[in-house]
Write a structure and sequence with these properties.
globular, RNaseH_sf, Nucleotidyltransferase, domain 5, 6 strands, RNaseH-like_sf, 5 helices, alpha/beta, nucleic acid binding
Length: 146
Amino acid sequence: MRRLFLDTEFTSLSRHRRLISLALVDPSGPECYVELGEGWALEDCSEFVVQIVLPQLDLPARGMSREEARTALLRFLDGDAEVEIISDALAWDWPLLLELLAPAPLPPGIVSREIRGLLAGLEESQVPHHALLDARLMAEQYALRG
């Protein structure tokens, strides 16, 4: 079974949150990272997101439409019989992944699992709050647990 680590960045910790970026990292190397240039607005972002998350983005170079991001995500997930997607905050990340995929269904053979505290052993300053970097950190911390 292929194991992927999921992280997202979004506008705020509310039920009205909007996806800003999403990463899936395979510890063996392949990665999918998307930054959305649409579907969210600066005025919907929390102060934390404005100060910490947004300055790390490169929207002029990496920003995608939702359709482009959906296509990239589906291409990344295509062809694997069984995939386990792991997140340390599944209640926040999983709905955003499914929303990005819509109207396409989740490809068959994909299951999700939450492992709380994957980054708990790190100092706050070691967690960049960047979807790709955080997903890589989760994969590293998972491997260290053996």
